[in-house]
Amino acid sequence: MAATMKILLVEDNDNNRDMLVRRLQRRGFEVSIAVDGEEAQSVAHAEIPDLILMDMSLPVIDGWEATRRLKASPTTGRIPVIALTAHAMAGDRDKALEAGCDDYDTKPIELPRLLGKISALLGTAGSD
Ligand code: MN
Question: What was the pLDDT predicted at 3?
Fold first, then answer.
């Protein structure tokens, strides 16, 4: 039996956040939330999640800067971050990877595709 994996979802849109939280919980993940890039810092430091899903378009501190700060911290720097963006532009992917994101996915979320990326970064089989 694998240990429960803890995901921090950083998303400012209530509907998107609630829907994705429910879908991840149904897949057996423990999910914490933050609603902006600043809150993401405090929650990540307090909970040390196994993985972070980071919306890029966020209030207070955007997802790129929030990721840079998390990756610069010895406490949170090793936590994998998957960037989520509504923009399927090639430049966005590069920008996310430059900021330190480990992977990148576009909205609307296709859950099987996102779960595949999560499993790859967590080193789990992702079978169910
Ligand atoms: Mn957003």
Answer: 79
